[in-house]
Amino acid sequence: MDIREEGVNRPEEHHVSGETALDGQRSLFILSPGDRDGLSQQARAAGWRAIAARRATDAAQRFLHSDAQIALADMRGAGDGDIRLIASLGPSVDAGGGALIVLVDAGDMAAVPTLLEAGATHFLAAPFTPAELRATLASAQRLVDRLVGGTTHSRRAQRIRRGDALFWERDGDRIRISDNLARHLGLDRQSVDPATFIRRLPRAERRSVIAALRGMMRSGRPEAFAHAAPGRPGDRLVHHLRLVDGVVAADVEWLSDAHGHDATGRDDLTGLRSRQAALDWLEQRQGLATTVLLLSISQFDRMNAAYGQVVGDALLGRIARRIERMTVDMAVGAMVARIAGTEFLIGLTGEAATAEKATFLARQLIGAIGRPFSAGDHLIRLTARCGIAQSRADDDATRLIRRAGTALADARVGGGEGIRIFSSEKRSRQVDADQLETDLRLALDRGEIGILFQPQYPVDGEHMIGVEALARWNHPQYGALGAGMLFATAGRSDYMLPLSAHIQAEALRQAAAWPRALSHLRLSINVTAEDIAQPGFMPQFLNLVDMSGFPRSRLTVEITESGLIEDVDNATALLTALRAEGLAVAVDDFGTGYSSLAYLKSLPLDYLKIDSGLAQDIAGTARDRIIVRGVIHMAKSLGLRVIAEGVETEQQLDLLTREGCDYYQGFLRSAGVSSADLVALALKA
To answer: Which part of the chain is the GGDEF domain (predicted)?
Structure first.
């Protein structure tokens, strides 16, 4: 149903959110000076939602503000100016992981190479048949899927949770509505029955709504309906209906540019909360336990100077999506805002507001931003710093943000992982590296070095098959410090050997005490480069294993890639001997060092463990995926089983499974847990 049949005049442009279109909700941005309406009609007939424009002015910016990943530029009768338009539109499409189709006359095919060189990814010759249009759009969609990955129900649910989204979907006998849409419809909750939803619409327009829904269910084709916004005379909302995996869902947008975003509540560029909205949110939580993360992207101005503002704007949007996706997945009820050019604020509540969890989230966010972004043939690498502040009883929003800003300033000038925290109890929690080296020498005697076990699962199964032993330093001043900080401190203080021996002995001791119900689990423990360089390491290590009572047949020794490269010949001899004694061996964190495929041929290995950053990159660009695919296929060709670390999303798991990965570990299933919690987790399964 064309909404014009309902008497609704579509404006020249629609301002829509910058959220990426989801599978089954395919949107196409059309730029055509002379045939906007005709191309829009053909796109809708092909099953696509059309966001169409006639004017070329600021086309790149308007594409960024649409929810489309594919743009179609009508180049029939193109001149040099139009080719320059492609050159300006192309980077914004590419930076967002999209596709750009150029439409040319059949007699102008000679111009296609120039247009492709200028940034187009596909072309279509006019006149074209509906089948040719569908095929071109399908090809463009496949490119987008390769660049940004497929989409699952969980990501649709995440979009429901996005504060700026105007979106709803049917969930059983209920309708789930995004927070922003519920507010505009005057609803006080995000899940209602269909009758309640319909009653929020003007009585005179309910029949057209029901007709559109029935028409779509009958034909399976996209439909749309429009209605007046409750309490806002003259403003109208249009609902673009789709069937998504058999579920009725709808994108909703204003039919007026003036209401494309909240005047004070949303950041225009990223769709995140605005600074004012963040302040309002914090003020409402005054007196409640709240933690603020202030995240800053470093040297972004240089990137802007190198690639241009259009690419920079697109990149900020992608950064915002990474920050939002990771925060929503890890912290229920969190608030995410862009409060300045390259500064983002994350507000945490409840259990997520503890210093330990806030610091962990900060590390994950910094790591996510550090993973490369693609822009054409270039990979853009960024760094970030984070200041954290926990609320005090007398805090208002300004004071809390000011303390987070002070912590951020310390993080910018300090070294290490780029995180500083001000807690509610102490004036400062800045980590003193020299003091840590001193403290580490006392930590073993004080019993501060603990062991966690992170479960490992087959990619196609639900039952745990093994665990990796991880170290955690329960520092009396700084709280829980992860293995990265622990081993970095040990390396600086020349304390690696005693630390490694303690971790190995403690992990084996605890694992040997597991009940019979866990007798099938493998245990992976890490061996450092310093360990294997020690004369007599192997007999000492085997004696440690045998004295613990843990079976050699269930033990995997993991050596980091960098440790192997320091002395390949010695590493080869050691691994051969360990395997002869009944142990399995693995290369850990593959992808973080030299990643020389040649030396792996000479190493006697059982497993190859893909580093978490590399595993997460499989959901990134096409280049990222090719690299991960190459590593997995290389390992399989050598007869190795592959374990992926740091798997955080269903999308990553699905892609790793398709490429032949065998096992995985990560926060998608479980963080590291204590031995007692591991037993409970395994028995419950």
So the answer is: 288-424
